[in-house]
Prior knowledge:
With 99 residues, the protein is an all-alpha fold. It has one domain (8-98). It is built from four helices and no strands. It has helices at 8-24, 26-29, 37-55, 61-98. The longest helix is centred in the last third of the chain and has 38 residues, at 61-98. The N and C termini lie far apart (63 Å).
Amino acid sequence: MINISLTPSILLGVFILIGFSTLFFLRTIKYEISRDVDLFFSSLGFIYSLIILLHGWRLDPILFFGQLLVVIIIFGLGWENIRLRGIIISNKNEKNKNG
């Protein structure tokens, strides 16, 4: 049974979809920062967001809170990972200019 109604899980699913779409389109924005494994994680994120969008109405409040915490942790680690990739690329470019 598929029951889509406006609940907080819909907002969480849309937030996940936007976040992993950003990771997917990172290749077109800054190619040197993207990695091949980003496509794999983006597809997993799309599947996860579809599951939350279609079956999120079944979540109890405590399970929804757990999913929310997991998503916040994943996005925090992903943000740090992309930021560190940018720092590594800028350091390599700086080394190439200097020597």
